[in-house]
Amino acid sequence: MPELPEVETVCRGIAPHLAGARILRFETRRPDLRAPLPERLAERVAGRRVLAVRRRAKYILADLEATDAAEAETLVVHLGMSGRLVLRQPDGSAPGRHEHIAFATDRGTEFRFSDPRRFGMVDLLATARLGEDPRFAALGPEPLGDDFSAATLAAAIAGSRTSIKAALLDQTRVAGIGNIYACEALYLAGISPRRRAGSLGPERLARLVAAVKDVLTRAIAAGGSSARDYVQSSGEAGWFQHAWAVYDRAGQPCPGCDCGGTVRRIVQAGRSSFYCARRQR
Length: 281
Ligand SMILES: [Zn+2]
Fold this sequence. Notes:
The protein has 281 residues and is an alpha+beta fold. It has 7 helices and 10 strands. Strand 3 and strand 4 (73-78) form a beta hairpin. The radius of gyration is 20 Å and the shape is elongated. The chain starts with a helix and ends in a 5-residue tail after the last strand. The site of zinc ion (ZN) has 8 residues, from loops.
């Protein structure tokens, strides 16, 4: 499942080709993904210029200019479990079975949104009121932004009796951190995923915040070199194969130090946590 670094990489990969371009043809090939597509989506989007491409949490946002008929609106895309937004050179081929949306730009390129499992989402919202939408209104700060600091995290989890792992996955406390990066950041910071969130002191929170930023930044840097995967014609590229320290490595020796520990897997709130009980306290 794409996490924040993958979504950021998609945004960086498509932005140079989509920001400033005008959308020409816009084709929807089914009425819904996880939820129904917006009414008359194709005709509302066709002909409009894209002002900017950006990311919020795990949403890809394409801001569309205002027209005589419509105020400035934002095309909101969530990749869900299996979604992929691929830029390709038009070759006249018809969209495949799982390519539910296709659109062309005045730069001679074509985008296709494929999503075999259809947990993805595409919506069109007024840009000025994006923050009022329920999906955005409650989101916490961006983990890579200055708004995410030891101080803001301390305030967000003050008194919380939930585990720090669950707190990191809570999108109202910090936006966009998924299971993999929560595990990796806690490992890097040497903090047990079972630790009660509200019990962490300022020093450990500072370490955790630095670790979150570090693992996300490194993953984005690794993905940057794979950005071409999103501009190739086949669209068959998989998500990056990162070398995780602990994620999905149960039973292997702790890789980051000589503590002699073994990576364990436990289940917290229905999600797997991977950690080293010796290194992480
Ligand atoms: Zn260790």
